[in-house]
Specification:
Helix content is 29%, strand content 30%. With 125 residues, the protein is α+β, with helices and mostly antiparallel strands. A six-stranded mixed beta sheet has the order 1-2-3-6-4-5, with helices on one face. The longest helix has 18 residues, at 43-60. The two termini are 18 Å apart.
Length: 125
Amino acid sequence: MRQTFSSGGPFEDMYGYSRAVRVGNHVSVSGTCARDDAVVPDAYAQALDALHTIGRTLAEAGAQLGDVVRTVAFVTDIRDMEKIAAAHREVFQDIRPAATIVEVSRLADPKYLVEFQADAVIEQP
C-alpha cells in the first residue's frame, strides 16, 4: 500500500511531489529545508530545523528518527560542512545512518543554505 504525506508547501503542487511517501515499511522524505519562519543566515540553525521537520514528517508516516537509514545533505557552501555536521550529529549521533553531503550551486530559494533528504525503514514487530 502506498501512502503520501503533504506539508502543504507551495513546491509540492508546483512540481507534483509529496513531502513523504510510505510503501510498506519504507518511508522516503523529500528534500527538506528550514521552515520559512526559521530561516536565518546560519547553516547549523537551518540544518537543525530541517532535521526536526523530517522527524515530524516521519512521525506522521508512522516512523521515527531511529528508523532513518540514510540521509543526504545538499549544501550551498561546503565550508558550512562542520556546522551542518554538528546539527546532523546532534540528531543522529546514536542512530548513525548512512550519510552523504554534496555541495550544489543553489537551492530552490537563495535564502536556504542546506536541504536534507531521508530514508527510513520501520522495523516490523
